[in-house]
Structures are given as structure tokens and as C-alpha cells.
Amino acid sequence: MTNPEPGNGKNRDELVQRLDLMEAMIAEGRQYTGRNSWIFVLWGLVDLVAVSWQHYFPHFGGPWAWPICLPAGVLLTVAGKVIQRSNPGYSKNAKCSRVMSVWGMMGLAMGIYVASAMLTHFDWQFSYMAAILMMIGMAHAISAMLLRWPMQGVVAAAYWAGGVAILAFNSGRATNVIWLIEMCIVMIVFGLYATRVEQTSSRMKGGCA
Question: Is the dihedral of CA 151, 155, 161, 164 positive or negative?
Fold first, then answer.
């Protein structure tokens, strides 16, 4: 009979500790998403206001709906993040940093894309609207894989389905309906859901803000 190698118990303990650490980091990453879920709700409301203003009040500066609402949303987001970072309990781990990087780069790419389309007057095209949904879906998908969060994966699939539907219907009316569903209902509902998840896990120590 071969005796177990000395140190096997120690190796197992280290492996268990590493797995526990990974699970804790994933949980904290989800908590991070929950603590920042107000951003999803905010941008869902920004889109709702812009779409409603543009289509129901076109004679009251309708063409300026998006040029006004988008910068306002950016300013509110920046202000909210500054307030969060000033919180004495603010901290982050590797998972949080990766999630932050995903959404930060998505936001940068989105800003460049939207600004370029508006300046070149291509923001009326169906492909422009579909591409926005595809980019948001990609950010959700990457975040879902990092955090092993099936629900966020479902949200990513919903955005991708919306992008495909816009191209398939190729209709202004259908695009407006899909946009309202995706950018308002899906975004706001997921934001509220993530908030609920954060509340249930708020007792965890060492979370990230």
C-alpha cells in the first residue's frame, strides 16, 4: 500500500481556501453590480424621457431630446460615482475591477459611437440602433461570465435579440417599440433586480462599492 504523500492535506486546504476566495470574489462582484444598479435605472429613465420627448412633444425641441438627455445622464452618472467613491467604506477587489473595466470601456465606446453618429447625421439608421443594443448586450455577457451570473446572461441575450429584431423588422415603429422595451423595461427591471440582490447580500464583509 502506498502511503499518501506528505503535504496532501495541506494542498487540499490551500485548494479549498482558493475556491472559497473565488466564490467570495464572485459574490462581491455581484454585490458591486447591485450597488451600481442605480445606473441602469437612471439610464432607463433617461432613455424613456428622451424617447417620450422626441415622439410625443416634437414641437417642443424634439430634435434636441437626445443631445440634451444624454449629457444630462452622463453628468448624473459621474456625480453619483463621485458620491459613492467618497464613501468611507468604498473598496474593491480584482473581480470588481474587471467588471468596472468592462463597463467603463463599453461606456467609452458607446460615447464615441453615439457622438460620431450624431455629428455625421447617421443616428437615424436602424443599424445604428441595433448596434447600441448589441454593445450593451456584449457588456452584460462579459460581466455575466466573470460573475457566473445566469440572470445577467439572460439580460445579454435579451439585448442581442432586440438588436436582431430591429434589423429583421426594419421598421421605424417596430424599432421604437423594441427600443422602449429594451432600454426602458429591461434596463430598469434588471437594475431593480440587481438592487434586490445587493440588499440580500449586504451583510457580506469586505464588499466593493
Answer: negative
